[in-house]
Amino acid sequence: MKPSSPAQGPAEVDVVVVGAGIAGLYALHKFRSRGLTVRVLEAGDGVGGVWYWNRYPGARCDVESVDYSYSFDEALQQEWDWSEKYAAQPEILAYLEHVADRFDLRRDIEFGTRVTDVVLDEQTLRWQVDTDTGRALTARFVVLATGPLSNANTPAIEGLDTFAGRVLHTSHWPHDGVDLTGERVGVIGTGSSGIQAIPCLAEQAQRLHVFQRTANYSVPAGNTLLTEQDRRAQKADYARRRQLSMASGGGSPHQAHPEPALAVSEQERRAAYEKRWALGGVLFSKTFPDQLTDPAANDTARLFWEEKVRAVIDDPRVADLLVPGDHPIGTKRICTDTNYYQTYNRDNVELVDLKTTPIARIDAEGVHTTAAHYPIDTLVLATGFDAMTGSVARMNIVGRDSRTLNEAWHEGPKTYLGLGMTGFPNLFNLTGPGSPSVLANMVLHSELHVDWVAEAIGFLETRAAVALEARADAVAAWVDECAARAAGTLMTQANSWYLGANIAGRPRVFMPFVGGFGVYGQIIAEVAAAQYKGFDVIEA
Ligand code: NA7
Fold first, then answer.
1. pLDDT in tens, 343-390
2. What is the C-alpha separation between 67 and 443, in angstroms, rounded?
3. What residue spans carry the region label Disordered (predicted)?
4. Residue 152 C-alpha to ligand 1 middle, in angstroms?
5. Pocket residues for ligand 1 (CB within 6 Å)?
6. pLDDT tens digits along 287-302
7. How confident is the model at residue 281 (pLDDT cuts 50, 70, 90)?
8. Considering the chain, what is the average pLDDT of its residues?
């Protein structure tokens, strides 16, 4: 147990929010402005969540800065100046710190405090929240703003603990940075984090070995500096941008081509892909509305991508290894890079294909594959996260009848609207499984969820009711609906972290709601308007 936290607030509050990332910060602001007493418990020593921890070189958002920002305060929108089209981690963190200061949020956040247990008192319907500092709180409402990507995945590779050099995980990069000049560096993992870090690491390292198990699709960010004129135009256009984003599939204002991919001429299709390529980022997977449902449409996108990528890789044998052959494009999150593929043209970079020569073990000096030994000074694990459920699963959350959330979710997460769980009254999970989650712009998604929870709490107050609890039949129907929607797409064909497929032992369930951000927003609004149908409203 750590020494007791210096921050001392009331032991009893209306709401405990777990996590001071994008969702947690806005939750604090919103609930507090509704007159509720709120404490935010945060494991890190600062605000920012995923942007606090993920400081690896090259870390950058794959949603445009102007859209990846809060919409709840017009003055905030107008005063903040983004310097780049796609912001890098330091700028996003600076923005979130600015928000924390501007709305005086820090006084209700307890940093360095990791929640260990969240236990329901069935008599009073209050939650007791325990932490690793010894600090304990009770609350009527608990809001989990722990984020879908906050529990790092460290692979169980034999001998990793015997490695004598430095081991770094992309999601826990040292805050003071790392100088890799002249070093032999190994990177395990070629997902979004690896793909962003590799070009930067290659510039510093004397030699860089990239250990790739599965190739991914990456689209260049096409990042640019924003001019004052760009910013003025964006700020003047905010109202329209936000409106389009809220109604869109993924929470950004860019609309898919109005027709299916194969309904247009080859020339028009190519022009559409070129336009998205120039936009850069993750939205390439949504150029056409049927790209993630029709294999033939998907193939047109995949072939366009392949042509672009092969054109910048000098060695065709290396290109063969970098072109994925195991999943349709977009069924894993498309990565966003700057000079990723070109990095393999450098003399100091070597791609090691783990499909043909897997890692056998790690020893004190480096990595043994079945074919060779690679001496290494620093080993970078870009091996991702126990995503979607991992951050919730590491807390002992105990609801009615002493049943834990992990027991309730052992076959996969079971929620109503992503927000509520049977047996866990007044416990709300934000931007997690059962909601669009990582398929949408996380900032607007966080606002949507927090606003919904704030309205729900207001509803209880007007009814003098004490709790809202998802009904079992509503949970079952929502789980079925999410599964049916996912089954209607190509998304279940990839072994992605959307399905928990990257973590041994996790049930294979497609976790995000795939029906679109705008559609989802309508559904949860209708539920609220219908007096929270599907929830039991528990009277005092
Ligand atoms: P990802 O996308 O889960 O990528 C993790 C990478 O690590 C991926 O290439 C994995 O290969 C690889 N990996 C994991 N374990 C191993 C072992 N044991 N051996 C070799 N390679 C391994 O995580 P990221 O952090 O890059 O990105 C997560 C999200 O953050 C991203 O989608 C954005 O939304 C932001 P595999 O594919 O499993 O063969």
1. 999 999 999 999 999 999 999 999 999 999 999 999 999 999 999 999
2. 8
3. 238-261
4. 10
5. 149, 155, 157, 170, 188-194, 211, 213-214, 333, 354, 359, 382-385, 438, 497, 502
6. 999 999 999 999 999 9
7. confident
8. 96
Q: How many CB atoms lie within 10 A of CB 316?
A: 8
**Cα angle 186, 188, 326; round to 5:** 140
The answer for residues whose C-beta is within 8 angstroms of residue 117's C-beta and 6 or more apart is 128, 129, 130, 395, 396, 397, 398
The answer to whether 482 touches 474, Cβ cutoff 8 Å, is: no
pLDDT band for 205, please (50, 70, 90 cuts).
Answer: very high
Return the domain boundaries, the chain. 12-151+387-539, 192-217+257-290+293-381
Residue nearest to atom 10 of ligand 1 (CA): 189
Residue-level pLDDT at 260: 97
Distance (Å) from CA 254 to ligand 1 centroid: 27
Strand order in the sheet with 366-369: 359-362, 366-369, 373-375
Is a pLDDT exceeding 50 seen at residue 419? yes
Cβ within 8 Å of residue 12, ≥6 positions away:
137, 138, 139
Residues 513-523 as b or e (16 or more Cβ within 10 Å = b): bbbbbbebbee
Q: Per CATH, which fold does 12-151+387-539 belong to?
A: FAD/NAD(P)-binding domain (3.50.50)
Angle, nearest 10°, between helix axes 22-33 and 89-102? Answer: 10
Name the residue with the closest Cα to ligand 1, atom 36.
214
Please name which of 43, 8, 24 lies closest in space to residue 103, comparing C-alpha atoms. Answer: 24
Distance 470 CA to ligand 1 centre (A): 34
- Residue 19, Cβ neighbours under 10 Å: how many? 27
Query: For the whole model, what pTM was predicted?
Result: 0.96
pLDDT confidence band for 8 (50 / 70 / 90): low
Per-residue confidence band for 10, with pLDDT thresholds at 50, 70 and 90: low
Q: Rounded distance, CA 189 to CA 170, Å?
A: 10
> Number of C-alpha atoms within 13 angstroms, CB side, residue 429?
32
How far apart CA 335 and CA 371 sit, in angstroms, is 29
Q: How far is CA 184 from CA 205, 207, 299, in A?
A: 6, 5, 38
Position 7 scores a pLDDT of: 53
Distance CA 217, CA 331 (A): 10
Residue 476: is its pLDDT beyond 70? yes
For residue 282, what pLDDT is reported? 87
Strand partners, 212: 353
- Can you give 488-520 as a three-state secondary structure string? CCCHHHCCCHHHCCCCCCCCCCCCCCCCCHHHH
